[in-house]
Structure formats: structure tokens, C-alpha cells
Amino acid sequence: METSELEQIDKTVKGWLRESRDNVLRKIDTRLTVNTKTSRRDLVTNIDKQNEKFLVSKIREFDPDAKILGEEGFGDKVTSSEGRVWIIDPIDGTMNFVKQRNHFAIMIALYQDGVGELGYILDVIGNRLLSGGPKLGVFDNGQPLAPIENTSLKDGLIGLSGPMVLNNDFNMVDIAEKSLGMRIYGSAGIDIISVLRGELVGYISYLKPWDFGAGKILCETAGLEITAIDGGQLGMLSSTAVLLATRNAHRDVLTIVGK
Question: pTM for this structure?
């Protein structure tokens, strides 16, 4: 896509996100309808569903020929990366949303033939938007993202998945011990924002496309490494253990994973 087209799309998506955030904040203190999906820790609320329907309707009107992959299933059954594909997570960190009313995000990504064009991660309560793509650059609330220091694992904090640490998947305990400390935020979007802002040197978790679709675009544009946990290539439709980090921390983690 040409830069001029991407700039117009960027402006439009930011408008959707402002409206989406307003919709969520108006309903955040209302009585939620909460259901489980795969387990008691995998929740969905009426707000998740309403927000995804809202975003799907906006995309359908704006880009009717595109495919939409949404966490709650109101988009399309996407099995191919061909063409234009939007990936949306209406509430990332639903448990945090339900129990804390904080530390959750809205995420949108746009891919063209498997190539990331634009990514958006909005910290709803913090009102912080990380946005951009390879042709536009990465922005933090509209300002160019500050350069990210290439910090090693031993010199920084790392965001980890709680279950992965408890099960010591991929030597996760060793990874935590080699770092200055681990943090568990409970939202991929919040963790990815923290890595992009240099607050964490990396983040590891089992993720699905809507969890990392936007982050993959932003991290690659910002010069971070984002791969499968074994260093393998990460496709836009992958569901796997994901490692994103500074180049130095990424190398350090892969050394520990390979032991």
C-alpha cells in the first residue's frame, strides 16, 4: 500500500479507537455479563462482544472486501493470509477488565498478503496508544517512539506468562532468574507496550493472532525481535509460544531455551 493510503487508514482507525474507548468507558461500571470460554480463567464479557461487533461493523463499512479475524468470532473464518486481513482483539486482558477495571487493551492490526502494514495497541485506562507500521514509523500517543536500548536479559525486567513459569515451560524459571525480575501483567497488549517503551526487555507467552498481530508489526518496525519461542518464524495466523525482546535479550533467552 502507498504511504498516502496508509495515512488515511491510520487516521480512520484512530477515530474508531477513540469511539471504541468511549464506548467501553461508558459501560465499565455497569453490571457485566461474564461467561467462560475454555476455562474459568478464560473469560468473555458482553463488553468484549459489543466492542468486537462495533469494530467489525466499522471495518465492513470502510473495507468491505477485506477479511476480519476477531477473537470473539464476529468476523470471518480466516485460513489464509492472502489479501487484506484485519485482526482485532476487542478487550485484551479480560480477566483484568473484570476484576480490576484496569490493565487491558484494544488491539487492531492490518495485514496485506501476510505483511504487516499497520498496528494499534490502546491502553484503555492509561489512554496510551502505540501505533504505526513499517512505512509510517511507530508512535507513542502521536509522538515518534523513543529509540529502544538494546538491553540484555540480565540488565532488565521481563514480562512472562504465569502458567509458563509455574510449569517451567522452556526453562522459564531460569529465564526469570537470569533477568532483574519478572512481571506478569495479564494482558499481552500491556506487556507489548511496556517492551516498546523500554520498561521491559522482553515478553514471553502463549499467544494467538489477535494477541500479537498488532504487536508484531510495531515491534518489527521498532527494531525488536519477535519470533516463536525457539527462534522460528512467526506467521500472522500462528498460535504458539511467542518471544519478543530486544536483540540482546532475545539472544539470551534463546540460549536458555535451548539448554
Answer: 0.96
